[in-house]
């Protein structure tokens, strides 16, 4: 038997979009075609796996896990954006089978999303597979509401959170032994953290609802996803 549709889509994507070409040469229409050729399976396969593992027998049991997935995905998405966390490929996002919450691992590129060889254009990972797993309303239902609430909590506590995150960023600056002449980079990253916490990254302050809509729209944009490095598996 030949390769399945997912492998075929991945192979075709890499053929048309090599590391040397991106992000200068991209094709949103081709990306959309490859997404259609690789139907989302995360939601279906995960729910089936959960059903086998914890013996789900009632619709309410399944629904509670769907809510867990939406809420944990929304909270982690905000954190990934605020922390400027890069390298969010498929192997760095785990799903806990018994309750279907997600957990991120590998924080090597914390505060450094734009320092990757191919900068990540989207604010956090919300590819077609993840959108499909969110359920009927996709990112515009429970996910959006929790996303907005987390943004509001971060904004209301921005001064305290900024001091904590700035300390972590400074520690990483010292641990990586960057030249003191690179302090301008540290200051720029620290300012970026402050702007994201206070929802001022766009030049002017946005209310949490508008900021949530703006960020989700950017994360799911076919134009943005079509620019991503193939190893990030943006088709999935």
From TrEMBL:
Ranges of residues in domain FATC: 204-236
Coiled coil regions, renumbered to chain: none
Domain of life: Eukaryota
Gene3D superfamilies noted in UniProt: Phosphatidylinositol 3-/4-kinase, catalytic domain
Domain PI3K/PI4K catalytic: 1-224
InterPro entries in alphabetical order: DDR_Repair_Kinase, FATC_dom, Kinase-like_dom_sf, PI3/4_kinase_cat_dom, PI3/4_kinase_cat_sf, PI3/4_kinase_CS
Major enzyme class: transferase
PROSITE patterns: FATC (PS51190), PI3_4_KINASE_2 (PS00916), PI3_4_KINASE_3 (PS50290)
Keywords, comma-separated and alphabetical: ATP-binding, DNA damage, Kinase, Nucleotide-binding, Nucleus, Serine/threonine-protein kinase, Transferase
Localization, UniProt: Nucleus
Entry EC number(s): 2.7.11.1
Primary location group: nucleus
UniProt cross-references to Pfam families, sorted A to Z: FATC, PI3_PI4_kinase
Name the record gives this protein: Serine/threonine-protein kinase ATR
Organism of provenance: Aduncisulcus paluster
